[in-house]
Design a protein that fits this description.
The protein is an alpha/beta fold and 396 residues long. The chain has 14 helices and 14 strands. It has three domains: 223 residues, Helicase, Ruva Protein, domain 3, CATH 1.10.8.470; 65 residues, no CATH class; 77 residues, Roll (Ubiquitin-like (UB roll)), CATH 3.10.20. The protein starts with a strand and ends with a strand.
Length: 396
């Protein structure tokens, strides 16, 4: 379940990536700083069950910070996209290839309007950020369109002649793009296309591609540089119908995380405020900078970076945290670690699917599962709930 960090050059993608992961990435005020994709791990927050059960956890894959479970998700910061990237302009082909495995996208938009379409800096307010939203969606739509157009007439006519399901045919053509057949089916229903596929017009196919993008690569907008953005810009972005827009300042978040790592602040990513540990250790410039950040966080409820991650994982992708254990009484794995692992599962997943997520053999040999809270035995079709603690019983 990778999350792609996307946008045109020079809007703060790499700063967002660094702030979310604390992984190194080159940051500079010029286009195409990112050539190869940066890959790192960010964390979304869950409530650790250890307090409810009255035990002390021993996290393995997801640290616990005072009852908050930090659940890892992989982030991909890809090269900046420019208009006509789908035709290879700029680093377009590279950008689109890097997006193949992303399940959801966070579109970093310069809400201040201080970068042109190609990423060149300009005066604040000189560029309309709405254009950036439209162009990126259009580029992905045309990327999908270019995939479908390869031998489309022959394949679609064959599909009609053989009575093959159009959703299956479309899914086959999007192999390798992390788009499920269910998402394809949803897109074709929403597109409302009628008649035989080989008779669809180019405009109809392009409309279908837009729906496939919405279903298969759901996107939120991080309205970055909101500390400098004219109010009208943010209002215009928030007015986009059917789109989640989150005011952010990646630069402020990165500063807070670095200060926290240096021991100057108490700050949990996603919090609406921070605490200075020892004011005497700060110089005047640092105090003024932190005052500005504090005002921003008070206005927007935080820097927005963590909210973007949480919204992508729990909102767009509808994932829920589930805790598999081997002993439902002690809540341990085979090594005796208490509540060691947490997995993010699509809402509606069942117990057997959790077993497969843990290990293929566990899924193949599944017998039953046990709900550690109720001690109730459940079958393979038991629908998982948020924060479930589950023991899988399998044939040995």
């Amino acid at each position: 379940m990778d999350v792609g960090i996307v946008g045109k050059p020079n809007v703060g993608k790499s700063t967002f990536f660094c702030a979310a992961t604390m992984a190194p990435a080159e940051i500079a005020n010029y286009p195409f700083t990112t050539v190869k994709p940066n890959v790192g791990v960010g964390y979304v927050h869950g409530k650790c069950p250890h307090e409810e059960f009255g035990v002390k956890c021993n996290p393995n894959n997801a640290p616990c910070d005072s009852g908050t479970r930090l659940i890892p998700v992989e982030l991909i910061d890809v090269a900046g996209l420019v208009p006509d990237a789908w035709q290879g302009k700029g680093l377009g082909n590279k950008f689109l290839d890097d997006l193949r495995q992303a399940s959801a996208l966070i579109h970093i938009v310069d809400a201040s309007g201080s970068t042109l379409a190609d990423g060149i800096p300009c005066d604040i307010g000189a560029h309309d950020p709405l254009e950036d939203v439209r162009f990126l969606e259009r580029e992905i739509d045309y990327w999908f369109y270019s995939i479908l157009q390869k031998d489309w007439k022959r394949a679609s006519r064959q599909c009609s002649q053989e009575g093959k399901n159009i959703d299956k045919m479309l899914h086959e053509r999007f192999t390798g793009l992390a788009i499920s057949e269910g998402q394809i089916s949803h897109a074709t229903r929403i597109a409302g296309l009628e008649g035989q596929p080989h008779n669809w017009t180019d405009e109809q196919v392009l409309r279908l591609c837009g729906e496939i993008r919405r279903a298969g690569k759901p996107m939120i907008i991080a309205a970055n540089k909101c500390d400098q953005a004219p109010e009208k810009n943010l209002a215009a972005l928030k007015a986009i119908e059917g789109t989640i827009v989150i005011p952010t300042s990646a630069e402020y978040e990165l500063a807070l995380r670095k200060a926290s790592k240096a021991g100057l602040l108490d700050y949990l990513p996603g919090a609406a405020k921070f605490a200075v540990k020892d004011p005497s250790k700060l110089n005047d410039a640092q105090r003024k900078a932190l005052d500005k950040i504090s005002l921003f966080m008070e206005k927007f409820g935080g820097t927005g970076i963590q909210k973007c991650l949480e919204t992508a994982i729990f909102g767009l992708l509808n994932l829920i945290p589930v805790y598999p254990v081997e002993d439902e009484n002690k809540l341990t794995n085979k090594d005796g670690l208490v509540l060691p692992d947490v997995h993010l599962m699509p809402q509606g997943s069942n117990a057997r699917e959790l077993a497969y997520r843990v290990h293929t053999e566990l899924g193949d040999n599944f017998i039953r599962a046990i709900d550690a809270r109720t001690k109730r035995v459940v079958g393979h079709d038991y629908v998982l709930k948020k924060d479930d603690v589950i023991t899988i019983i399998a044939r040995r």
